[in-house]
Amino acid sequence: MSEATLDGRGRLTLPKEIRERYGEHYHIVQLHDGIKLIPIEDDPLDALRAEFADVEKTAEELRQEARNAARDEAGR
């Protein structure tokens, strides 16, 4: 686990190994007990394409499955 400290101007410098692994751009998410840094890809669309490369269904098929699942859940 690494540590980082704010400087006098409120800036946080992440350790080099963290920047090398996750990049230099982050979303900051406030949680009830702290914060979370979520890395932002240099090209978010490429990241999405890579994430869903093995999905064989169309977006419409996925939407329909989600609708059906929601209806089934609501009917219980």
Automatic annotation (TrEMBL):
Superkingdom in the source lineage: Archaea
Keywords: Coiled coil
Residue ranges annotated for the SpoVT-AbrB domain, each copy included: 4-45
InterPro entries: SpoVT-AbrB_dom (IPR007159), SpoVT-AbrB_sf (IPR037914)
Coiled-coil stretches: 45-72
A Gene Ontology molecular function term of the record: DNA binding
Name of the protein: SpoVT-AbrB domain-containing protein
